[in-house]
Amino acid sequence: MLKVMHSAADSPAPTSQWEDLIKLPAPNSVHWDNIKTQLDLVLLALETLTGIGSEAMLQAAISLNLESRVPDRVALWRLRQSNPLRKGQGGRKKLDVEEARALVLITCYLTKQHQELIRRGVGLLEQMAEDNREPHQAALLGDYIDTFCNTYQERMEEDATISTNELTHLALKLLIDLLFYSGPGGHRRLWLALIDRSTKF
After folding, report:
1. 10-54 tens-digit pLDDT
2. Which of 100, 111, 116, 162 is most buried, judged by most C-beta within 10 A?
């Protein structure tokens, strides 16, 4: 059973977090598309759980002194569109390693801000599992699953092979991941998870 994490202590300064990521292994170019997909899906889970949008992400970039890498909505949209699963070719651009690091720090900054809600969602998921009930029977989880599935289908290329059950499983897995990214060292966890999963995705 997943143990709920303690609240994050004072987090390191953004500069030291950036240096942390530089010291970690860089992604293998062969698996780069998978990393772009994973990053976008983590942000999608965070958006659909919390209701935040691009404004909150840009504000986080300013707070972290990353506005040179994510300066405006168009730049953010282009970074998100680099996910090869996304519909439309127009905004697609190459996501470089520095931009990926910036998105990792922005994601973890926002998960920390919404840690209480994320923890509540994971706690409900545990409770439903203990009671042998379906997750969507809890209002918070039901809303999250519906919004995640609908938003995924709106934004991603149509894939006849992915079922609602698979999307639900993905949404719940990402919810648990968000809890780990919201704690101390979350940026390191997310970066290493992106590299690890890119070889298996």
Report:
1. 444 456 888 888 887 777 766 777 888 899 999 999 999 999 999
2. 111
End-to-end CA separation in angstroms for the chain = 25
H-run or E-run covering 52: none
Is 9 inside a domain boundary? no
CB of 35 within 8 A of CB of 24? no
Six-digit token string for 27: 């992604």
pTM of the model: 0.86
Domain count, the chain: 1
> Per the domain annotation, does 18 fall within a domain?
no
User: pLDDT tens digits for 143-156?
Assistant: 999 999 999 999 99
- The letter for the amino acid at 95 is L
Residue 14's beta-bridge partner residues?
none
Tell me how far apart the alpha carbons of residues 169 and 178 are, in angstroms, rounded to a whole number. 14
User: By CB neighbour count within 10 A (0-12 exposed, 13-18 middle, 19+ buried), where does 12 fall?
Assistant: middle
